[in-house]
Recover the amino acids of this structure.
């Protein structure tokens, strides 16, 4: 991809102001003033690009693109499939999505087309081909932005039919499907694929294997559509890479899979800042950044972020001064090669008229937000060398969507809430606090690159994960896994012969029963040695295990399972496996990962204790390591001498650490060190 340094800019919809050329002129002037070098155009412009069927009008877009390019501003070109024109919906109702009770939607909104409809595909192909031909070799086009935030599902007869074909391909015979889904239960067996209906709240909704396969199908069908879009550009000669923007923790699609259909991963981040300690929001957001980077193990793009407040969240909070800068650098720290906003200019009407923008309704540049954006632009321009640099974590967390789908659908030990996401964030935060980079991977990934692997609540085992984990530990890896792991196979059928399936020898125990706790209940983990010592509260789920070689480090304090193991450790091959039996708090995980990494001698990025509200992250080029220290507190952070000494071995590229080791409130410091400094 073109190296412009870090891309800075965002979504720009000039079609809303075509009748007001003076506004478009101002946009250009202001973009230059704000250090913007990239815009995304065309995503929601279908009715401007093809006002009548087959009648294309690209001149307005070409003019904008040319003018921007002449002024040093590049374009990420959108395809318009995210919102269709009225004529298309009126003429071809099959393009409109059908909901899960069978009701066809009317024209309106966006992101609501059928991914299967041959007509929709054909219309998208036609316009994409035209766009590809027109802009496919334009030097101002950096990248194609396919549609917008693909998501949702369609339940029309075309999709139903495609689902049956998908099942036939997956299972080959109806007997295999029946066995995999365990349809003998309630005698729901099928005689042929034609009989299978997709899940519905007014039909079948409790066959877990069916629900899981439907979600897989939705991903595959969406992916097929993404590929269709990309192919139509390619066939027209467009050579630029393609992306599509992913969403925060979106559960409707398996992004690991979908990412294979694009060249570059990009995503839209809208964290709710200022609701709790900023560092907590930063950890959650950082985990998503790491997830996006880990999808391709390559730099990603921050495609959208809000320069001030959104207008669609429960409360639209302004970002306090300095927060936008901090969050923007956090994206870069975790591997983004861009800082892009939604949006450059605020719409005067309709549903996003109060959504934050670089240029607001006032229309001039003497605003707090514009000034902060401009200063970010200046800083990013100075640090272009970061673009394209990688991240090589020693630690990985498995965070797997198929696992989550299955676990949260299963009627099991705690239908009120299993807290998979929260548990992963706790584990992730504990590792980050120690100063490690973390890859957030799925069961499809290899484990060879890591020394530490966290695999919490891995309910569903697939892709040979048990073999990969066994090998990882045997070869010297440190594994932390937990309760409610290795329970079902990839069709959500329970494994016979004890759990965690295939790993009982590795963890040195067998899980026998699991207790669901009421919201008001808790238990405690206390040292198994009987000494006075740390005790950790645990809630929600308590696993009862039988040791088969492992040693109990902690035991339960209360209930009939008082004295049963609550945390265990087992040596296996040259590695160690820790098994956490209950849903413990952050304090427990913080101490556990500290102990695990110290005992195994896994070195974090820095020496010394990192202040609680500071995040340490790094990126690497062939020659250098770039260390980012970010203070998410509204108070200055003070670094201890050992940490300071360690940092002073490098060159400060951005920000300041005062002689006394102070990082200002919301401050970011970037230090460049020779790669093999230690
Ligand atoms: C999403 C969309 C944008 C816009 C923003 C508003 O991320 O992609 O078009 O609606 O949300 O926050
Ligand atoms: Zn459909």
């Amino acid at each position: 991809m073109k190296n412009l340094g870090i891309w800075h800019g965002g979504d720009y919809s000039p079609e809303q102001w075509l009748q007001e050329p003076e506004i478009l002129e101002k946009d250009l002037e202001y973009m230059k003033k704000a250090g913007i070098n990239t815009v995304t155009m065309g995503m929601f412009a279908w009715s401007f690009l093809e006002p009548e069927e087959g009648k294309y009008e690209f001149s307005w877009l070409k003019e904008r693109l040319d003018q921007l390019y002449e002024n040093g501003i590049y374009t990420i070109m959108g395809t318009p499939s995210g919102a269709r024109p009225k004529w298309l919906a009126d003429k071809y109702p099959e393009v409109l999505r059908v909901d899960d009770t069978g009701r066809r939607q009317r024209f309106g909104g966006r992101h609501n087309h059928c991914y299967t409809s041959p007509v929709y595909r054909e219309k998208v192909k036609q316009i994409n081909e035209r766009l590809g031909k027109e802009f496919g070799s334009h030097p101002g086009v950096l990248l194609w932005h396919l549609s917008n935030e693909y998501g949702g599902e369609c339940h029309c007869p075309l999709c139903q039919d495609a689902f049956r074909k998908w099942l036939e391909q997956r299972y080959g015979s109806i007997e295999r499907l029946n066995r995999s889904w365990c349809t003998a239960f309630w005698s729901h067996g099928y005689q042929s694929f034609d009989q299978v209906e997709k899940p519905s709240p007014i039909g079948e909704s409790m066959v877990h294997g069916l629900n899981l396969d439907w979600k897989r199908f939705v991903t595959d069908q969406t992916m097929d559509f993404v590929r269709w879009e990309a192919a139509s550009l390619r066939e027209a000669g467009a050579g630029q890479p393609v992306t599509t923007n992913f969403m925060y923790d979106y559960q409707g699609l398996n992004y690991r899979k979908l990412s294979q259909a694009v060249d570059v991963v990009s995503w839209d981040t809208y964290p709710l800042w200022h609701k709790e300690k900023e560092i907590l929001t930063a950890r959650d957001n950082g985990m998503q950044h790491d997830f996006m980077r880990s999808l391709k193990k390559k730099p990603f793009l921050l495609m959208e972020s809000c320069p001030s407040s959104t207008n669609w969240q429960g409360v639209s909070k302004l970002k306090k001064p300095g927060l936008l800068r901090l969050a923007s650098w956090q994206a870069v720290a975790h591997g983004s090669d861009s800082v892009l906003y939604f949006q450059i200019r605020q719409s005067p009407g309709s549903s996003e008229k109060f959504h934050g923008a670089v240029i607001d309704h006032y229309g001039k540049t003497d605003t707090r937000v514009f000034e902060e954006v401009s200063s970010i632009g200046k800083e990013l321009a100075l640090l272009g060398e970061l673009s394209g640099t990688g991240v090589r974590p020693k630690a990985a967390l498995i965070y797997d969507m198929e696992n989550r789908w299955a676990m949260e659908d299963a009627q099991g030990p705690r239908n009120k809430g299993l807290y998979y996401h929260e548990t992963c964030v706790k584990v992730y935060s504990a590792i980050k606090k120690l100063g490690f980079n973390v890859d957030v991977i799925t069961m499809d990934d290899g484990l060879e690159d890591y020394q530490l692997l966290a695999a919490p609540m891995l309910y569903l085992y697939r892709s040979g994960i048990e073999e990969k984990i066994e090998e990882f530990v045997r070869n010297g890896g440190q594994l932390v896994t937990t309760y409610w792991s290795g329970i079902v196979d990839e069709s959500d059928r329970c494994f016979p012969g004890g759990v965690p399936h295939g790993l009982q020898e590795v963890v040195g125990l067998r899980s026998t029963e699991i207790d669901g706790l009421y919201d008001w209940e808790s238990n405690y983990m206390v040292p198994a040695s009987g000494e006075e010592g740390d005790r950790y509260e645990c809630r929600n789920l308590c696993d009862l295990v039988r040791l088969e070689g492992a040693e109990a480090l902690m035991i339960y304090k209360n209930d009939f399972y008082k004295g049963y193991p609550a945390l265990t450790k087992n040596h296996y091959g040259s590695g160690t496996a820790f098994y956490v039996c209950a849903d413990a708090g952050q304090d427990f995980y913080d101490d556990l990962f500290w102990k695990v990494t110290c005992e195994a001698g896994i070195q974090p990025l820095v020496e010394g204790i990192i202040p609680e509200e500071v995040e340490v992250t790094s990126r690497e080029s062939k020659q250098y390591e770039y260390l980012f220290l970010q203070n998410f507190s509204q108070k200055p952070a003070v670094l201890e001498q050992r940490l300071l000494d360690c940092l002073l071995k490098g060159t400060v590229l951005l920000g300041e650490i005062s002689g006394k080791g102070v990082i200002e409130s919301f401050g970011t410091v970037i230090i460049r060190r020779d790669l093999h400094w230690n």
Observations:
- The chain has 18 helices and 25 strands.
- Residues 644 and 661 are 6 Å apart (CA to CA).
